[in-house]
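Work Package 3 (structural annotation) set out to generate three-dimensional models for the target panel prioritized at the project kickoff. During this period the team completed the workflow that converts sequence records into discrete structure tokens, so that structures can be stored uniformly alongside our sequence database. As a representative example, we reproduce one entry of 380 residues exactly as it appears in the project archive.
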Amino acid sequence: MARIIFAVIIMLSLYAGTNYYIAMKIYQWLGSFITHINIKVYAGIYILFVLSMLSVFLPISSGVKKIISYAGSHWMGIYIYLLMFFVAADLVVLLGCSVKMIPHPIPQRLRFYTGLIVILLSVGMVVYGRYNASQIRFVSYDIQAKKTLPAEIKIVLVSDLHLGAINSEKNLSKIVRGINGLEPDIVCIAGDIFNNNIDALQNPSEAMALLKSVTAKYGVYACLGNHDGGKTFREMTRFLEQSNVRLLNDEYVTIDDRLVLFGRVDSRPIGGFDGLKRKNFADINIPANTDLPVVVMDHNPSNIKEYGNETALILSGHTHRGQMFPANLITKAMYIIHYGRYQKDANSPHVIVTSGAGTWGMPMRIGSNNEIVTILLRGK
């Protein structure tokens, strides 16, 4: 517990310190063309933006919290890029001063244009990220299984819908239309269907109707992601059942005597799955008919090391491909495969990691895309 408290204190201190740095940089920029700024008013407005990112911890009504969290989720993106670009600008100016290309003290005109470029770049990135997050990209892979498959099968993969997050329900209608347009044999939802709490959905009945309208020859299947747990876990599972989405909790189903589909319980749930625990894959009884290709839905790609040559294909999400630059560089360093297609060697399973069809936290995507994946699985 002491470690958690210490970590929270460090994070809040870093957040406060970096915001102080940004606030002072903006104040200096404003001072380059405004003769008098009321520091109390300026500080009050800036602090409101800072606190908007922490709205989840504030003791306020749910209605007010939604409004503040909406502002906070956008401020988060602005904050990230203001910090990045101000630091980069300061480093450039410092380098320029050290080689005597920029005079010291720094001219007011240079301060003005440097600040203006930083602010325009930051706002531009957020506007682009907001637009890009409203688009859906279609990606396809052709996979050849090591086992005999009577006929090729079309799997459509989505993950990370994050229903309850900003714009998630609006985007769901686009996602469903996109899936149905692909005429899939099977639809696999590889976790993070919800955004921690089903009560965050604005219109659950409409979202349920949309999921019910997904058309797939052999049905819609899902596994749990880390955001699919918590105090409303039972309501979430009931919602999926009523939406005609079959949740596989360390269970398998045989699809038309053509393949075996497993769904794994997530290894790191936020808030838990009401006592449901992940099993060891070795302890799950593989079906007797092992001549069929085995496809596994496992939300987190860090688990791919659990599977051997008994598995033909692993379907994952979770990483969002970083969602916003430069986080994609971090996820690329963290995972063996953070996005796309991977196979360790000829005897290992194929792995497909999708960047997801929705967003978490900030309703933006920069350096990544919302996507729907088509996988054409063929036999040998």
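The mean pLDDT is 91.
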